[in-house]
Amino acid sequence: IQRTHPAPSPGDTSSPQFRTAIPGSPPSPIPSPPLRRSVGPRASDLWRRGGGNGDLTADDPMLLLRRATSSSPHLSSASRFKRASGGLALSRPSSGASSPSSSGVGGGTLGIHVFRCPDAVGIVAKITECIASRGGNIHGVDVFVPQDKPIFYSRTEFVFDPASWPRETMNIDFFNLKKLFNADKSMVRVPEIDPKFKIAILASKQDHCLVDVLHGWQDGRFPVHINCVISNHKRAPNTHVMRFLERNGIPYRYLPTAPGNKREEEILDLVEDTDFLVLARYMQILSGRFLECYGKDIVNIHHGLLPSFKGL
């Protein structure tokens, strides 16, 4: 899609369509940047889990997905709340509530709440009220409602003071929200307090997705424990990836694959003690039997043309 300005009148060079690169030279048109059109993910893709009854728990790896629905064209108007000049709270805490930090907005301990329930009026307001009533401050909310079904999905990031809002009390508060809206999923995680997820990373020959995950783990953006990296391609010991893994004590498992042997049984043995898997551009299609046997979430990190190819 190409955005264009209205055609200027003859001889009019004041339009933003034109500029003069060199004084005295004729004006040249400046094409406006094209509008990029993004396709939002399906709710079933974002929330698919391999089992479980939706009870309140902190052990859900989908909490680590960072605003997976932020590019969806179907997001409601309440789905994006931008913070500027140090932050903007969605609602003010009550007068008796304590602030998560001395500044009232910037600091505190990070919490992440994920919610799924039948769509209804006032869900965002109740989530906001629950957090604000305990002195918490919301940093971001993503909301998604599919066009073909009235199911409400949300992911909320907030900061709070653990002394004013103990972890056990937080579980109870969000569980009450679950009952209020008949939700089948209401989970909260506090990365600084809760045990780290254990993951395994599957990768192939190209390094860029794997490197991005490893560097995100190194700088604290992904608070997980990496059990191992599994690849169907061998890497030389003096490469950047191998040196990084050796320096950080992360095992590297080389399992070459063939058309008739995907080494899935061996992979299952290696990832048995993990909470979820990360496919860092792993160029193999996992079988239905593998997914059934593993029975947990798998996060696929891939190039932008993924919708054109067969997936998990």
Automatic annotation (TrEMBL):
Pfam families: Formyl_trans_N. Residues 1-59 are annotated as: Disordered. The keyword Metal-binding does not apply. The keyword Membrane does not apply. Keywords: Hydrolase, One-carbon metabolism. Residues 112-196 form the ACT domain. This is Formyltetrahydrofolate deformylase. It comes from Anthurium amnicola. The gene is purU_7.
